[in-house]
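Quick one: examine this chain and its backbone structure tokens and tell me how the chain folds. Here goes:
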Amino acid sequence: MDKFFTVVTGNTLGSHEELINRLAAKRHLTEVTSLEESDVILAFCPIVSRAGTDVEAALQQIPAGKPVILVVLHHTFNPDYTVPDSSRLVTRGDVILTVDCLFHENQGLLECPRNEESILKILNRPEIQPKTSNPAAPEKTRQRTPAVSNPPEDAVNDADERPPGLKNSGITKPPKQQDYPTRSTMDKFFTVVTGNTLGSHEELIHCLAAKRHLTEVTSLEESDVILAFCPIVSCAGTDIEVALQQIPAGKPVILVVLQHTFDPDYTVSNSNRLVTRGDVILTVDCLFHESQRRQECPRYEEAIEKILKALDKGLENKDQWARLRKILWICGVIGVGWGIYTSYRRIKETCFHFLQ
């Protein structure tokens, strides 16, 4: 019987419990409440902003003195989502294994080869191998018996109310069961987050994806629009000015200004007046709080509708430019053809007069 001590460095929405249950379904495990009793530390690090930053912060929270197995949790709908190997970000020598897993608030741990591979890697570690003699567990330990791999009910309920926050560095796909319009949409967006949104930017993206088929791309060149999120942490004017400097040029920008407050009726001034860049096609204000992620209020719903309309308008403009380019090309071909024809006529007339 092997003993492990759990460290959770962020909100996993119960996915760490599900992973432990999956491990327990294949191996007899005992979770202990003190570091001294444990054989190994099982640490869970959900990615909420950038992998490097979050892993570094997680390593600072993990106590020393025992070997560490670090599970890095990436939020995504896509079971085939590719993530870089997080072990390259680990600088501590006592981390004996680093694995990456995929999860989502509605599905828990995704059913995918990556998660199965990670579970096998953990089980294959010598520290997790069963021991020949298993003394009775002390009263203050919590024994893990084999369990099904469904996420805890309370974790699913929490996920429905409070989706996690993180910057997806890959492609985010909406749920497969969702029916979307078949028409072409301006749906490829590149995300820029200029501060700590406490996950509220991810929830807004989920709300948009529930109403429109959207795809988050990892390069600016692939995108149709930049979706930028600017949380206000000091002065709105200063924070927005700094945020605009972080947003790359070359694509139209939709700027979402996030105002932190408990009060869903909180009145904020229109941040649009503070925006000086001409490529920002829309600026909206949203309210959020760390315990609620977003405030259920008319302002939030209005912001969602404005963004969707801006995406549609962007599509219309895109189609208009395509038609205009086609017309200009046709005019150019006609102009060149007419020029060749008139030049031929002049040369012919000149030769005719010369021969006479």
About this structure: The radius of gyration is 28 Å.
